[in-house]
Amino acid sequence: MSPKSSLQASDERILQFVDHIKEVMSRITKPAFQEAADLTGLVTGFETRERIDPATFHRMGNLLHEKKSPTMGEISQSLSVPVSTATRMANWWVDNGYAQRLPDPDDRRVVRLSLTEKGELLLSSIEDNLIRNVQRLLSCLTPEEQIILITLSGKVAASLEYPER
Question: What is the pLDDT, as a whole number, of residue 147?
Answer without folding.
Answer: 92
